[in-house]
Write a structure and sequence with these properties.
The protein is of the alpha/beta class. It folds into four domains: 3-281, Alpha-Beta Barrel (TIM Barrel); 298-325, no CATH class; 327-387; 389-507, Alpha-isopropylmalate synthase LeuA, regulatory domain (Double Stranded RNA Binding Domain, 2-Layer Sandwich), CATH 3.30.160.270. Helices cover 40% and strands 19% of the residues. The strands form three sheets. Strands 1-2-3-4-5-6-7-8 form an eight-stranded parallel barrel, surrounded by six helices. The radius of gyration is 24 Å and the shape is globular. Residues 508-514 have low confidence and may be disordered. The structure holds 3-methyl-2-oxobutanoic acid and zinc ion.
Amino acid sequence: MTQKDTKDRVVIFDTTLRDGEQSPGATMTHDEKLEIAELLDEMGVDIIEAGFPIASEGDFNAVSEIAERSKNAVICGLARANFGDIDRCWDAVKHAKKPRIHTFIGTSPLHRAIPNLDMDQMAERIHDTVTHARNLCDNVQWSPMDATRTETDYLCRVVEIAIKAGASTINIPDTVGYTAPAESADLIRILIERVPGADEVIFATHCHNDLGMATANALAAVDGGARQIECTINGLGERAGNTALEEVVMALKVRGDIMPYYTDIDTAKIMNISRRVAAVSGFAVQFNKAIVGKNAFAHESGIHQDGMLKNAETFEIMRPEDVGLAATNLVMGKHSGRAALRSKLEDLGYKLADNQLKDVFVRFKELADRKKEVYDDDLIALMQAGEDAENDHLTLKSLRVVCGTDCPQEAHMTLVIGGKDLSTTATGDGPVDATFNAVKSLYSHQAHLQLYQVHAVTEGTDAQATVSVRMEQDGNIATGQSADTDTVVASAKAYINALNRLFIRRGRTGEDKKEITYRDVS
Ligand code: KIV
Ligand code: ZN
């Protein structure tokens, strides 16, 4: 496909599983990556960047399996500009019905200095590596990393080399989120006008959100002639993240009058995948986040509610159902049966196999015993809580906490560790501290707590609390989540969930062995 063929269609390239997953703390397990890839494919994403195969054995295996299972989407892997990375990438993606190799090198003065290549040497490296990739795969994407801070003449020169060497997509990354909309559009326009062969390829835009302009920059690039947007669900990604898929897709849908472009995304699937990505990455969506935030369709002020009741269009430019937000809020309770739970979860976008439903039903009943009315948000929290997985090394068996004005606060805890019950009593500065100390005394570790966050799911004193915990050890970061009507129990479970994830990650990469990131120059 070339610029001419796409006309007004914008190709959506999702990099949640690569750029998104590489953001510190957003690690996903193998099965979670497969699940997200399947949801992306089902929602109509054109290209899924499934990972960075050279980075680790785990990344390689995930990309290979996503490739094997892919249905419609092109499956892409990332590779630095060297033959070893490219070969490894090809070995992972070649199982896909439609494979793509994405190779890149930093072309700005600052990035050229890292491998110590002058302009000519770098041009030669680009020629050789794109040619090598093209000899393996007929779908090659090339990116000049930090393109927006690269000298324009040099950028034109290297883009031409990549096209001549066989790249069919040229991605223009704003790696550090530095550009602004008018400049973003101009850069693509200049490349299309000046580079011979530009009309034979597709130009892509890849924006980071450091100045909060990623969505605007991506849309401006489309105006300048780009026909592929690189993005992530919930804007997940390093630092301030990447362009959010839901934002560009909905902007194009809602403002077709001034941006006459379209995507093939089934927008009704947005909410569900947003929730799943938030749950598995441990990166909660901010309440006022555009499109997928909890408040994005909430109209609380009196004036707004009055207007909404008269005519929804008064304050709403899209309908909640356009993004898959169920309009129902039928309350469930302890008398609700399994069929009602299944149908409610389906409305909320969760399709469960019978054995999964059985497990969720048990947890739902436990919740309904403690909480009279179970709302949609309670069920979503239940689904998002880091459930105990069969292979979890640690699970919480029991917890009793003494807290109040008299010190010390005490936690009496039993954990199941590697199949054995172990109990202890620990003290701390408050019930949560005592609880975390109890876990530490039963399972000694060096991980330190980077973040501890609590949110009430609904109103009322019997509301569930969702707790997120981020832990770091030896450069590996993992996030755990849980929900419970007892905040301390939710805290204990989230903490244990994070440790299990850290354990999986360390097991996957080898003790204390750091993974390669795409910032490591070959
Ligand atoms: O931000 C960036 O430059 C990247 C490249 C690897 C495309 O993610
Ligand atoms: Zn990036």
